[in-house]
Amino acid sequence: MAGTDEEAVAAADDALYVLTATLLTPAQFPSVLGDDYPEACAALGLPPVADGYGLVLGQDGEGARWTVVVDDVSLVAVAIASWDCGMEHDLSPDERTVVAALPGWPLAVAVAAPNVPAPHDPGPEAADGPPLAPPDTDGWGPAQRRLGADEIALQWAVWREQIDDSAFRTPEGPAEAAEGAGGGAPEDGAGQADGPSGGPSKIRRVLAEARAYLDSPPPLGRVRSSFAPGGARTLRADGPGWSLVARTDDIAFVLLDDEPGEVLPVGRGPELPGLLEALDQMAVRPL
After folding, report:
1. What angle do CA 92, 98, 101 make, to 5 degrees?
2. Cα separation, 91 vs 137, whole angstroms
3. What pTM, to 2 d.p., does this model score?
4. Pair (86, 147) in one structural domain
5. Residue 241 in domain
6. In the chain, which residues have pLDDT < 70?
7. Which structural domain, as residue segments, surrounds residue 170?
8. Residues 84 and 165 in one domain
9. Contact 130, 106 (CB under 8 A)
């Protein structure tokens, strides 16, 4: 899928109407694509190179969807930062930076280029392989679980204010950081007030698997750290069937594949702060 067929690259790069872009690096990648950076790269058929990629999503003059993969990560990062600040920025990758032109889009895009046909996948004669498509998020599963964790990280204050710290029990042992677990969610109904049956034991398992990362480092990108107010860090860790979002100076939230729609808060207790600090030390960070 990631072949650099010259005709495919030319078809996508010639008069590409750029709609959006994203980074695919060890520290920043669309988590909907996988639990870690190599898994996200594999979803696009790309090798997990150390410096990562920029993904430019757009339409050609016929309206066909294309994802142009470039190795100039800084170029794409500057464009994204400018757009986030409400500034106009022309993203026009140099042909020499193009690694591959992949048919389709790996992510959902809600906009379309003006004055061209509606978005559609390019025909097989123009593409080297089947078109990319966003992961199915209609039902609860790994992709939806990771998207939920993304939302908590972005809207931490909204989720945090739903939690009454007095609801957490006083921990009494190494594994008791999970004893305060219960459902917590904004008013959109994504969670339940009393949490699922067996929640504490499942959270203990997640924390144990996260702690095991300290002895056996996981694939790159399984643990990521980003800026948070007050000198803290927002920590994100993923594993088989689970996602964890935390602030290094606060509590954590856990989402599980086998608990659809549930968001389980984890009180700090005596063990969680040290675990979060240790995970933060090993995490990859944006440059």
Report:
1. 100
2. 29
3. 0.84
4. no
5. yes
6. 1-14, 169-198
7. 142-282
8. no
9. no
